[in-house]
Amino acid sequence: MMENDKKKDMTEQQKNETGKETESLLERSKREKWEEKKRRRQERKNSGKGKSKLPIVLVGSVVILFAVILVSFFYKRYSPSNKMMPLSKYFQLKDNEVALMVHDTRLEDTGFIEDGQIYIPYEVVQKYINKRFYFDSSENILSYATAYEVIRSEVGSDTYQVNKSKAKEDYTIVKSQGEKAYIALDFVKKHSNVEYHLYKNPNRIMIESGWGNTYSYYKVKKSTKLRYKAGIKCDVLENLEESDVLRVVQDGSEELESYAKVMTKDGVTGYVLKKHLSDLYEETMTNDYKEEEYPHITKDKTITMAWHQVTNMSANGGLLNTISAAKGLNVISPTWFSISSNKGEITSLASENYVQQAHNNGLEVWALCNDFEAKKGTIDLATVLGNTTNRDKLVNSLVASAIEYNLDGINIDFEYITEKTANAYLEFLRELSVKCRVNGIVLSVDSYVPSSYTTHYDREEQGKIVDYVIVMAYDEHYAGSEESGSVASVGYVQDAVDQITKMVDPSQVIVGIPFYTRLWKENKQDGATKLSSSALGMSQAEDTVKRNGATAKWDETTAQNYVEFEADNSVYKMWMEDEKSIEAKLKVIFAERDNGKIAGISCWKLGLEKDSIWNLLQKYTN
Fold first, then answer.
1. How far is 160 from 154, CA to CA, in rounded Å?
2. What angle do CA 225, 231, 232 make, to 5 degrees?
């Protein structure tokens, strides 16, 4: 039994071992299968990764490339340009040319450097620096008149004449290129209130002559760029540093919101972002230069002057009769001289006896010279006044006559000056004033009431040159007018006084008033009105009213008696000059004003007034 039990136990043991082996095989098989599955899954996974790697890399690369392109695009589009524009390209100058900057403006004209001297166009000198330089292109002579000297130099010369003496510079004073004259800037500076600075590479000059003018400025707050145009992509002209001062360019161009148009101290104009600039501020240009003044020969009395129309020598004989009732008259101006040729010659009706009689009656004689032949086409004022030789002839003839006949003054009545001849006319006045001043001769000039179409007469300059400016406050309506009207309404006289005293010191202003009126005739023909007129003296006008049974009525607007009547199928109109209208004018002329008292009056013309007018004039002038 024990043996059987032993066998049984061995059998059980074998079974267990066999079961364990079987179980072990199963587990191993399962494990192997699981591991195989795991391996295959891993392989599949790895295999899947391998298949998707290339597309992912490509997509990533595309994204990165797109991002780079996008960043590059926006950088190029919105980042500021640092590209510098060479100043040689900006100024575009040739050879020895010099760019010209005046105040805040670059001029289209250029100058040049030759033999170490800077030369600038005559026109630039006249317009921007000193209008008292005058160039005669017919004789190639530069002239400049001071109070007592006439300075002249010929093209290509280093010498110049001062009255009758000579002086010399170490450079050529005037050069010409084609039809243009160029003046040495140092010679201009010698006689002008001007400062300049030359910058090089390329050559450019900053010219300052606007003394008394106010300009606007910025200061740079932080380093920035001056650009050719307004925009961060525009080329850079200069790199600006903190505290650099920039002048605002005031050329009438539209103001930009973000950019300011400015000029640097070395004359480069461009645009700067306003955010890099300080607040705008202003400065007035000043320096210590004292401009030479023209001394004036003026009287310590109120001038009561009248023109005496003399058309022939025999008319001089009627002087005493003409002035017999002229109470208070202290200056008489006979119309003696007239330009007669392009060479500057004059016709003269001067009379030594006339002057002696006038002086004996307490009158000064300021003889008149006119340019009326210009209206006829007999003379050309550009030739008479523009040519140096002809101008000298005219000046010398007038002064010689004044000395010969013991005249107290010369009265210039040039009424046909155009814009073309204006500069020559002013030079004539300057040169005439020199000789009058030296010889103690009063120089007066007749001038139209200031208007937009007579600005070329330059009354302000006239006032600096001559002793008296006589504003002719009449001919408001004249023979050629298109409508009837007053010769000198009170408003017209008021405007004349107001305008002229803004330009000329009142102590040098004489106001011309009329002793005449106009009788206007309006005649209707074929539906249109034909207009004509005739000038009448005061007594003639009154006789006309009486003869036609008309009645004059006071017109408050013109401060004149107005009359209208019909005769000969026509309508006649007249704004009369009489005691009442003249007094209204005198009240305006001699009214108190802040800038001083008017020097006096002058009347056109002797013989047209009523005797009673002189009592009225004496009341206001003595």
1. 7
2. 55
Cβ atoms within 10 Å, residue 473: 28
Each residue of 243-276: pLDDT tens digit? 999 999 988 888 899 999 999 999 999 999 999 9
Residue finishing a domain among 177, 208, 239? 208
Distance, in Å, from the CA atom of 253 to the CA atom of 463, rounded to the nearest integer, reads 35
Per the DSSP assignment, residues forming a β-bridge with 554 are 561
The pLDDT tens digits for 587-609 are: 999 998 888 999 999 999 999 99
**Mean pLDDT, residues 580-591 taken together:** 98
How far apart (Å, rounded) are the C-alpha atoms in residues 443 and 437? 8
> Is residue 616 within 8 Å of 579, Cβ to Cβ?
yes
Backbone torsions φ then ψ of 474, nearest 5 degrees? -150, -175
What are residue 434's phi and psi, to 5 degrees? -60, -50
Same domain, 466 and 495: yes
Tokens of 24: 């072990």
The CA distance from 427 to 456, in Å, is 13
Q: What is the CATH number of the domain that holds 238?
A: 2.30.30.40
Among the three residues 166, 191, 208, which one is the final residue of a domain in this structure? 208
**Domain around 260:** 214-284
Cα–Cα dist 1/291, whole Å: 159
User: What pLDDT is stored for residue 6 in this prediction?
Assistant: 47
pLDDT tens-place string over residues 286-317:
999 998 889 999 999 999 999 999 999 999 99
Please state the rounded mean pLDDT for residues 112-139.
Answer: 98
User: 67 in the Ramachandran plot: left (φ > 0), alpha (ψ -120 to 50) or beta?
Assistant: alpha
Whether 406 and 263 map to the same domain: the answer is: no
Q: Which two tokens stand for residue 206?
A: 């900053």
8-state DSSP, 443: E
Q: Is 74 inside a domain boundary?
A: no
Angle at 605 between CA 602 and CA 607, to 5 degrees: 130
* Helical ranges in 110-224 per DSSP H: 122-124, 185-190
Distance set, CA 562 to CA 115, 485, 517, 539 (Å): 72, 10, 11, 15
> CA 60: distance to chain centroid?
68
Residues 313 and 246 in one domain: no
144 and 244 belong to one structural domain: no
Q: What is the number of domains present in the chain?
A: 3
CATH number of 181's domain? 3.30.457.10
Shared domain check, 259 and 132: no
